[in-house]
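Incident log, support desk, overnight shift.

02:14 A customer reports that sequence design results differ from what the structure should imply. Their input is reproduced verbatim below. On-call engineer (initials T.W.) acknowledged and began investigating.
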C-alpha cells in the first residue's frame, strides 16, 4: 500500500525530473546559440587562423569573437549551472524516496 508521504515523495521526483529535462533542453539550446554565434562571427569577419583550432581566450586573435559572443557564453554558463542544480535536486529527491523505502522496510521487518 502506498502512503500519502510516499506518493508526495514520488511526485516530487517526477517534478524534479521534468525540471531537470527542461534545464538540459535549455542548456542544449544555449550551446546551439553560442555555436551559431561563433559561426556567424567567423562568416562575417573570417577566422584568425587557417586551421580549425579551438577558440582560446589566451590568444589575442580570438579576442574579437570572444567579445562579440560574451553574452551567449554567459547564457550558456548560466544554463549549465541551472542544469547542474536541477540534477542535484533530482538526486536529492530520489534519495529521499530511497530513505523512506529503507525506513519502511526496516519497520515492517521489526
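02:41 Re-run completed on a clean worker. Output:
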Amino acid at each position: 500500500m502506498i502512503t500519502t508521504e510516499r506518493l508526495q515523495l514520488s511526485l516530487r521526483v517526477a517534478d524534479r525530473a521534468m525540471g531537470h529535462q527542461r534545464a538540459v533542453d535549455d542548456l542544449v539550446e544555449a550551446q546551439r546559440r553560442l555555436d551559431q554565434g561563433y559561426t556567424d562571427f567567423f562568416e562575417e569577419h573570417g577566422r584568425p587562423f587557417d586551421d580549425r583550432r579551438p577558440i582560446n581566450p589566451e590568444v589575442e586573435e580570438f579576442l574579437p569573437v570572444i567579445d562579440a559572443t560574451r553574452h551567449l557564453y554567459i547564457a550558456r554558463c548560466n544554463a549549465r549551472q541551472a542544469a547542474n542544480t536541477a540534477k542535484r535536486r533530482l538526486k536529492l529527491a530520489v534519495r529521499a524516496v530511497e530513505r523512506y523505502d529503507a525506513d519502511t522496510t526496516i519497520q515492517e521487518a521489526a
